[in-house]
Amino acid sequence: MTRVGLRGRHMKRTLFGTDGVRGSANTYPMTAEAALRLAAAAGQYFRRDKAQGHKVVIGKDTRRSGYMIETALTAGFLSTGMDVVLLGPIPAPAVGMLTHSMRADVGVMISASHNPHHDNGIKFFGPDGYKLSDAAEAEIEALFHSGVDLCLPDNIGRANRIESAIGRYVEAAKTTFPTGKRLDGLKVVIDCANGAAYRAAPEVLWELGAEVIPIGVQPNGYNINKGVGSTAPQTAVAAVLESGADIGICLDGDADRIAIIDEKGNIADGDQIMGLIAGRWAKSGNLRGGALVATVMSNLGLERWLVAHGIDLHRTDVGDRYVVDAMRRGGFNLGGEQSGHIVMSDYATTGDGLLAGLQFLAAMVETGKRASDLAQVFSPCPQVLKNVRFTAGNTPLEVASVQAVIKEAEASLVGKGRLLIRKSGTEPLIRVMVEAEDEALLMKIVDDVSQAVQDAT
Prior knowledge:
By secondary structure, the chain is of the alpha/beta class. The chain has helices spanning 32-46, 65-79, 92-101, 134-146, 165-174, 200-207, 234-243, 270-284, 300-308, 320-330, 353-367, 371-374, 400-412, 439-456; strands spanning 3-4, 21-24, 55-60, 83-89, 106-110, 119-125, 148-149, 159-161, 187-191, 211-215, 247-251, 258-262, 267-268, 291-295, 312-316, 334-336, 342-344, 383-389, 417-423, 429-436.
C-alpha cells in the first residue's frame, strides 16, 4: 500500500505551536507539500475506521497564499478518502460552528490571524467545533512524520464548494443579539482588517439596523492586517472621530479577536470587554460558575475589579485554546484574553470578535449609555509588554545571565507587582510583561530583562 511521509532535515521539528501550524508562506511548514501531507495525516486520524462518508470543512482568510494552502489541503484529505466542503473566506469561529452543524469530522481554518500577509497558518477543529487537544495534535504530527496509508482509487473523496456558508454564519450571529432589540440610530464603524469577516460583519450589523461605516473591507491578498484591524486600530479611531460614530469595532484577520473604540476615540482591550460582559452576566444570573477565565496576561486591575464584584478569576496559560479547555473543565461560559479573544461558549466554540462586539452593542442598547460609559470598566494597573526578537534555534531563557536578571527582578516585585516572561508560540519572540504601580520600577525591570534577553541572543 502506498505511504507518504516527509523526508530530510524537517523530520525532528515540532510542527504544532500554541495555535495550530504557522509559518511564512512557501517556507516549511507552510509549503504546499507540507500542507498536503498534514491533511493526509489528519484525514487518516479522523478516518481510522476506513468507512466512507467522512467529511472535512475548510475555511480561510484573504491571504494570497490561502489559495495554495487550500488546494494542497484539499488534495491531502481527498487522498485519504475524506470528502471536502470548501467554505471560502469566512471567520474562524464560523468554521468551528459549521464543523459541528454540518456533522463534519474535522474543520480547518487557513489563517495566520493577526500576522502580516506573508505568514499563514492551519488550525484544526474537531467534530464538536472545538480546537483539537494537544494529544490529538501529537497523533496527527506523528502520522505527518511517519507517513499515512492512502485510500484505494474507488475511495478517493469528493470536493464541493458551498456559497451559503457566510449566510449561515450571519444568521447564527444575529441570534446572539437580544430578542426584539435593534441597532437603529447607532452609527457603527466596523474594521474588518481586510480579512475573513469583510463580508459577514458589515452584513450582520446592517441587518440589525445599524448605520454601518465599513473599513478594511477591500482585501487584495496582501493587505490583511496592514494598517487596519484590532492590532492597528488607529485607522478605525480616525474613522470614528471623523464620522461622529457611536462606536468602532475592530476585528483581526480571522475575526476571532476584537478591540472596541468609544465615541471619543479611546480604545478598550479584551480585559475591559470581558469585565463588562462578566459584570452584566453576573447581574442577570447568566455567568455560569460565577467566574471569568482569562490568561496570565490579563491586567491585575481586572482581577481586583472582579473580586470586588464577587466574581472569581481563573487564570490559564496564554492561548485561547487553554482558556477554552479551562472553561469546559470548570463549566464556565465566559473567558478570553487581553488581546481580544472573547470566548462565550453559550454561542461559540472559540473566540469570536463579532459576537463580542454584539454583546457590547447590546449593553449600549439596553442601558442607553454611550460606549465611553461602558468601555472603561476598571482602572488598569500600569502594564508594559515588550517583545524581544531572537534568532531561531537560540534558547535565551536558558542562559544563566538572563535567569539571574529575572530572579533579581522577581525579588524586587514581591508585593508590588508581577513579572511574566514567555516564549511566543507563533513567532521567534520573547515576551516580557511587567505590572507595577511604581512606573519607574516597572520600566527599569522591563528594560533590564529585555536587555539581558537581547544580549543572550
